[in-house]
Amino acid sequence: MVKWLLLVILTVVEAKLNDQHDVCPEQIFLSNKSSAQKWIPDKMNAIIENNNSSKSNTISQTLKFSHLKSVNDITDDLYYAMPPLFQLDDYDACLGRNGTFCLGSFYLSAPNDNQLYRLLQWVSSNTRYRFNHTQLHRGLCLSSSCIDVSNTPMSPKQQFQQCVNNITRSQYGLEASMLRLDYCKDAQTPPSVPRDVADDIFLALFIALLAANVLGTMYDIFRDKTNKGNQLLLSWSLISNYKNFTHIYPNEDTIVSRFNSIHGIKSFILLLIMMAHSAIAIHIAYLYNTKAPESMRRNSAFMILMNGSQGVQTYIVLSSFIFVHHFLLLGGQYTKRSPVLIFFVLVLRRIVRSAIYKFIIKIAFADGTMWIPIMEKEAQVCRMKWWSHALFINNFYRPDDRCLIQTWFLAVDMQLYALSIVLAIALTRWTKVVIKIIPLLFLVTILCNFVVAYTFNLKASLYLTNPEYLKKLHYGMPSFKWMYAAPWASLPASLLGIATAYLYYEMRNNKIDLHKYKWFKIVYRASVPGFFGWIYAGYFLPDEPSRLVSAFYAAFDRPITCIIFCIVLLGFIYRIDNIYWRAMSWSGWQLLGRMSLCVLMVHWTFNLMQIALQTNVNEVSVLKYLGHWLVTVLMTYLTSIPLHLLVEMPVQKFLRASLGI
């Protein structure tokens, strides 16, 4: 308990110290100005630096902001008086001229009477909407932006530190000390993730998969169609897999077709997830106009991005719902077998389904490139933690080190799936007892989550979207590790999925038609806008809620979201209206929905790749957000089609045929 409390205290202190960032248009002018000064003789340069220093002191002394009631009232002249948060020289041009390029972060300091530094601290105190302006992020070419130190005997790291400090001191009267060095490199610097045996093994596996697809397809073409054929070889047939992939179930009144809308739900939620991850990726970038994203965050329209992450819980509900419903339909087959055997067979089937998961972990980061802080860093984590992903415990083992940030969901899904198997087996044997236990478990889980959130001051997902938290990808945040990505926080969603599956199974067996209940129609029609309304309700929460309110919201936010979604799900299955369920039952959703696992695994790579390829600071606007999202969606689906046809589907079929599961 003491260790946990100390961890929470240290995390809060760190968050307060490290909290926010910014960049402004005058950044380019200042950068060019400082570079131009390097060509002036030393004496004249010293005079200019002294003038700049006295000018910065004068500006610092004349800054007036005590009359402002809120950080949100800050004027443009005050905002752009602050040092630009990001500066990035042209990376390609630097290396092309055999220069040394350094990237790193710095923290600022100044005497207590420095008005500019007090302004930085005041703006940074609004952690909900602002970057930490007491920290600067610089990527400089030493041979062009730091001429005065580039020829000294100091190391590149020391030259970088001295250069940034000189510029900051001369232009703003502030001291800059290095917080973190991401790298210093030139054109001859080798990649930080060199090729090794793991890469050779992956390459061999990739060639083997292609060969298996060619062999299976050729066998399917030339085999005797009057015979059933070798199922092991046919599992690799591209022709057969393509037919399965493109098969469309019509919207008829059958058990299967009633679930057509689930494909639409999954695909729609994935599109929103990719949109949210585009916003996160942009926060990792070096930004040109940081005032834009800070201002956007105060707009209620962006609440879907800031508070929409609980939409992921719908996947947990669907996972438990589909499995338990299928289990109940085939209950007669399972009751004849040992419960222990059933458990391990079903777990093995889910692992087989997740074969693409292991493949993507390797293919996504098989080799590092020039974008060291993003791609190569994640590649190193993937190499270190691959085994924890294979065992689905990556959300517990070194949780701050993340290989593909979205994979916490697959670990939680597998952990809750194992629990769903136990409850499903019990449900078919001791139905009356389990039906009473599930609601009790649901309430107890919410209560436990409340106690945990209150005891350790853990926050709901809404309060994990601060600019600095997103920029660090929630590194070192207990709320992300032990609430957002923890299985107990998603357990209510799983229990609701199980309960909804059993409820639907019983209603169908007893021929209960929800069309006949007017009250349900009213509740259902209100549930779809209510789902998004609950997400937008986060806009009205205080920026700094009390510990009690924060814990209450953290415990009840997800369960309420999932209760509303379960009503929506039943309404779709019973086809209460001709608007919502028809939109989600479009035949094209079936194709996209079948690739959900590939899409979930691939999209983050394209989110990061667009940022990692930047050679200068990025401008932020609504159109930029939209463009980043659309490129991610397009590239993700184009990549997911061959991955689904050549890897996910044939591997599943092959393992099931060979293992008899």
UniProtKB/TrEMBL annotation:
Domain of life: Eukaryota
Signal peptide range: 1-15
Residue stretches making up the Acyltransferase domain: 260-643
Pfam families from the UniProt entry: Acyl_transf_3
Molecular function per GO: acyltransferase activity, transferring groups other than amino-acyl groups
Keyword Transferase recorded: no
Keyword Transmembrane recorded: yes
Protein name: Acyltransferase 3 domain-containing protein
TM annotation in the entry: 201-222, 268-288, 312-334, 405-428, 440-462, 482-505, 517-539, 551-574, 586-606, 626-647
Keywords for this protein: Membrane, Signal, Transmembrane, Transmembrane helix
